[in-house]
Amino acid sequence: MPRIEPLSPPYPASIDQALRRWMPPGVPYEPLTLFRVLHRNPELASRMFSLGAGLLGHGLLPAADREIVIARVTARAGCGYEWGVHAATLAQQAGLTAGQLRATVAPGVDGSWPPRYAALLTAVDELHESARLSQPAWDALRVHYQDEQLLEFLVLAGWYRTIAYLANGLLLEEEPWGLPFSEPPDPSQPARAERAGGKDRR
């Protein structure tokens, strides 16, 4: 049971409309437990919606890149709740393979990742460990992204760290339809990421 009880239907009309706005298009599920808890504070939820929806629906990063960042941030934070929700929905819609998703949970960045994705994973790892980026990590990102996209990357990584704090702090149980989150495997046997179509597409 979450530490704060989520709202249950029937919802007031304003809450019902707000909850539906939070759900990804075409997802045939009830509003997420996280959203139903957040709407215990509708004003806070409304403020959070603007940034979250903007990052997911109007961002400058390609969808696959965005979902790799989200998967790695939530994996490093041990947030099976949010990792599983994205892995089951937006990550697959963005074209990430099962192998790539598994590899976001594995320690380190092996050589099977295209350079662009490897740069993202390395940067997320550094931010997770130190809240800073080394010059080599920054330079590796600049090969593939413009300034506007780099700003978005930093906000995206920080935003999903916030979401991980919420889900973990509230003790949210994984959604029944989300993909199960497994603990990272032995570092001596890292999972290999499958290339999306064998190409490093931008």
Q: Quick one: how many beta strands?
A: 0
Question: Average pLDDT, to the nearest integer?
Answer: 89
Q: Which overall shape is indicated by the principal axes computed on the Cα atoms?
A: globular
Low confidence ranges: 184-202
**What distance lies between the first and last C-alpha atoms, to the nearest angstrom?**
42 Å
Largest sheet: none
Query: Helix- and strand-based class?
Result: mainly alpha
Strand content: under 5%
Q: Percent helix among the residues?
A: 55-70%
Helix count, per DSSP? 10
The H-and-E topology, N to C, reads as: HHHHHHHHHH
Radius of gyration: 17 Å
Describe the structure.
The protein is mainly α and 202 residues long. The chain is built from 10 helices and no strands. The protein is globular, with a radius of gyration of 17 Å.
Layout of SSEs?
Elements: H1 13-22, H2 33-38, H3 42-57, H4 63-76, H5 80-88, H6 90-93, H7 98-105, H8 115-130, H9 135-142, H10 147-169
Quick overview:
With 202 residues, the chain is mostly helical. The chain contains 10 helices and no strands.
Primary descriptors:
about 200 residues; mainly alpha
